[in-house]
Amino acid sequence: MTDAPAPTPDSSDPAEGPTAEDTFEQRAVRLAKRERLIADRADAAGGAFPVAVPVTHTIPQLRAEYGELEPGAETGVTVGVAGRVVFSRNTGKLCFASLQAGDGSRIQAMISLANVGEESLARWKELVDLGDHVFVHGEVISSRRGELSIMADDWAIASKAILPLPNAYGELSEEGRVRSRFLDLILRDQARSTVRARAAVNASLRQTFTSHGFLEVETPMLQVQHGGASARPFITHSNAFDTELYLRIAPELYLKRAVVGGIERVYEINRNFRNEGADSTHSPEFAMLEAYQAYSDYNGIADLTQELIQNAAIAVAGSTLVTWADGTEYDLGGQWDRISMYGSLSEAAGRTFTPSDPVAELIAFAEANGVEVPPHATHGKLIEELWEHFVKGGLERPTFVMDFPVDTSPLVRDHRSIPGVVEKWDLYVRGFELATGYSELVDPVIQRERFIEQAKLAAGGDLEAMRVDEEFLRALEHGMPPTGGMGMGIDRLLMAVTGLGIRETILFPLVK
């Protein structure tokens, strides 16, 4: 058996790729080949886009079964396999092509004059381009260099590519990868592995929840009133109901209704939409996990969250010691630190902060230290801004930041021993907020008071403030048990495990 010769400057290698200047010409040439294939459907190719091809094995299956063949080995086994042509070399009486499967695995196809005949070999040379999907039938062999191959006795076009592939080594910029993810998936192992990592994470989350007796449910994405988080919503209009609707910013208020109804351990993995900024850790549309456990609190739900994340890391990396895309190792193992927001801020800033500090005093301190004062500043917003300025950047290991100001957390239970504070934590991993957890507020009287305070902020121009949700309050009045709840961005969980930015972890992110 022979092998493809080393590439030369004029070879058909996708690493070289077409220039912008010749793409139009290549498209015209490929369209002409398409017409020729369609005009001659009687040949083995079956046209440019046959409805099916007789595949018997996938490329991954063949690699798993025959990947250890000795160089030069012949199996006597004939198979039908299909893949995308990502390398091609035509050399007289023998043509070579690398066929790539969706997972990136490859097998060599060998088209020889002796096996397919002169006419079929000529048609291969004339009609097959890089990027085409082709079917080959033949014997599984190992070339003299040990490359797993199919010595074809027949072949066919499975789908004709009209546009050429881009350069595999840099033609796609980060922006290009985001906008043309289909090309990114063809060309980059990292893009393919990220999709698999996301699937493994979701499967792991569901498995961990199931082991703890949780049920997965689905709640509405179109809502008559937005709530469950402090965020600016997207607004749309229903023609059928002739009313404004909101794309949900969180599933919280519906999941809590489920807890009231007796689904005591419940979770949902689904899409949220927030009409806010987009950056390296934020996307207007994102995947969210929320979970609620009756008869638990923010300590119990923190334990569960740590287990969920550590199991997800193991599912992707085989260990809680993960390796990011840049080669950096990050340890998600062990017991994670739990620190107080007010205590850690006081230590880092060199002065004591308490829940009773006046807003004017906090504004003065923020301005003196170059900390931006948020619009509609409240005590809680200022404390959180100061904490981010003084503490956030110094967190290296995964850390639960505990006990938040009451006015920024209207759905959270008051702390059992510290006035002016609620039982809430934020989990910081890799320098960003990954998840948040609560001891849920279940007293409908206090919840109504909190909603009214939020409504006042909304009336004053705060676009992120919540409104009074009477239907949710009615549910609470029927009795909700003590509950621990948590929310976590799936995209950010992928960021923590892979080290990638948010636009890389979302398969098709929103772009202008």
UniProtKB/TrEMBL annotation:
E.C. number: 6.1.1.6
GO molecular function: ATP binding; lysine-tRNA ligase activity; magnesium ion binding; tRNA binding
InterPro entries, per database record: Aa-tRNA-synt_II (IPR004364), aa-tRNA-synth_II (IPR006195), aa-tRNA-synth_II/BPL/LPL (IPR045864), Lys-tRNA-ligase_II (IPR002313), Lys-tRNA-ligase_II_N (IPR044136), Lys-tRNA-synth_II_C (IPR018149), NA-bd_OB-fold (IPR012340), NA-bd_OB_tRNA (IPR004365)
Catalytic activity line of the entry: tRNA(Lys) + L-lysine + ATP = L-lysyl-tRNA(Lys) + AMP + diphosphate
Matches recorded under Pfam families: tRNA-synt_2 (PF00152), tRNA_anti-codon (PF01336)
PROSITE patterns reported in the protein's UniProt record: AA_TRNA_LIGASE_II
Subunit structure of this chain's protein: Homodimer.
PANTHER family named among the record's database cross-references: LYSINE--TRNA LIGASE, CHLOROPLASTIC_MITOCHONDRIAL (PTHR42918:SF15), LYSYL-TRNA SYNTHETASE (PTHR42918)
Name used for this protein in its record: Lysine--tRNA ligase
Species name: Microbacterium azadirachtae
